[in-house]
Amino acid sequence: MTTRTFTAILHREEDMYVAECPEVGTVSQGYAIEEAIANLIEATELYLEEFPLPETQKPLMTTFEVTAHAQTA
Description:
Number of helices: 1
Strand content: 15-25%
Radius of gyration: 16 Å
Largest sheet: 3 strands, antiparallel
Oligomer: single chain
Strand order of the largest sheet: 1-2-3
Shape: extended
């Protein structure tokens, strides 16, 4: 058994947090961030039992900001 590192992207939808793993495509949710991540870990582990991924290099990830200009009517 090996341990792998994946990315969790979270966003809020109404009263829930949605967590997504872009490397695998699994998605889960929870009322708290910790619950959403715990559910995502479980979903990802179950997915990988059925569909194992080959070993790959960890992708580089960063964030960036853009300025959005509001449209006036």
